Amino acid sequence: MRRILYLGPEGTFTEQAARTLVSRVYPDSTFGADPTALSGQARSDVDLILEPAVTVRAAMVEVSAGRAEAVVAPVENSVEGSVPATLDALVAADPIVAVAETVLPVRFSVLAAPGMTAEQVRTVATHPHAAAQVREWLARELPDAVVVSTTSTAAAAVEVLAGRADAAVTAPLAAERYALDVLAADVADVRDAVTSFRLLRLPGRMPEPTGVDRTSLVVTVDDRIGTLADLLTELATRGVNLTRIESRPTRSRLGSYRFFLDLDGHLAERRVADAVAALRRRSQEVRFLGSFPRALPSGCAVAAVISPPESVSDAAFADAAAWVQSLQERSRA
Ligand SMILES: O=C(O)C(=O)C[C@]1(C(=O)O)C=C[C@@H](O)C=C1
User: How would you class 253 by CB atoms within 10 Å of its CB: exposed for 0-12, middle for 13-18, buried for 19 or more?
Assistant: First the structure.
């Protein structure tokens, strides 16, 4: 039985994402057929088991060491941006790669100890990304409450159960899992907020290209004039669309950064492979974080994806390479 780890405890948004991703990536597994058959004596009958982890970092260590099959982690929220704990854990871990992603709408439930009224709430526990998405609601509805950070939204529910916080801002799933009162549901400062999650595992067989894919990289560069412009030019000249660029400190000294890049396209495409090779030539280190089908926010038609020009199609690359080769062969004849 293989373990799939997610940011726990039970009842996080990440657990919800893990259920979607596991059914998609392992469609023939027992878990995929029956997500409820996961506890008690049924454990021995299932191929995959979903298990909560305390942190994304701890889960990645388990995957890198071969003790778990995969980890599901939050990557980016449309309101608060990237999840730094996930980005930093990705760099700290031995290489693991994403094979799938999903995007979930994010609306929160506010849970409190049984019998507690909103007026009595003095401390509200939640994950920092969740706090940022309900800041206005908290200021309006619970103005006297102090926000306490926890490792996840479900960890906040556990704090309330243990009597260490009065209320928790959680995923709706937590309201089903913990014996707490629902003070408010469907809470969000930004109505259509979404968070993206990825399923990551040891490098191996990559998902087949679908035509709407994403490639994720971490690039460490030298500190010199124009480095970043050079990298971006390598992408632009090959018609590779950059969908995200994020810098994180390397932690070695002030002003030293590595860049997380998300590109449209799959490493199996010539233009993407060529661009990734060029980035490697031009930087200290490139870490490949996977090529996988891109999750489109609901309502986004495939046509909305920016198509590269014909001059960078696989056929155009093959044709140009064959022409150069013929010139070389002729010159040797
Ligand atoms: O705490 C959770 O429920 C999580 O799954 C983490 C997380 C995040 O890291 O952004 C996921 C979605 C929400 O944006 C808030 C928290």
Answer: exposed
Identify which of 147, 153, 190, 199 to mutate to test ligand 1's pocket (most ligand atoms within 8 A of the CB): 153
Q: What is the arithmetic mean of pLDDT over 208-217?
A: 96
Q: How far is CA 241 from CA 8, 171, 236, 290, in A?
A: 34, 33, 7, 16
Q: Work out whether the CA dihedral 150, 152, 154, 158 comes out positive or negative.
A: negative
Q: Is the CB of 171 under 6 A from ligand 1?
A: yes
Over residues 266-281, the mean pLDDT reads: 97
The pick from 13, 108, 124 for probing ligand 1's pocket by mutation, whose C-beta has the most ligand atoms within 8 angstroms, reads 13
* In contact, 326 and 283? CB cutoff 8 Å: no
Render pLDDT for 127-151 as a digit per residue (tens, 0 to 9).
999 999 999 999 999 999 999 999 9
pLDDT at residue 178 is higher than 90: yes
Closest atom of ligand 1 to 14 CA is 5
Query: Residue 296's pLDDT is what?
Result: 77
Amino acid at position 180, single letter:
L
Mind giving me the DSSP string for 208-262? Answer: PP-SSEEEEEEEE--SSTTHHHHHHHHHHHTTPPEEEEEEEE-SSSTT-EEEEEE
- Reply yes or no on whether the pLDDT at 258 is more than 80: yes
Q: Set out the domains of the chain in order of their start, with CATH numbers.
A: 1-105+193-204 (3.40.190.10), 108-187 (3.40.190.10), 205-313 (3.30.70.260)
Q: What is the distance in A from the centroid of ligand 1 to the CA of 97?
A: 20
ipTM confidence? 0.97
The response to whether residue 68 sits with its C-beta less than 6 Å from ligand 1 reads no
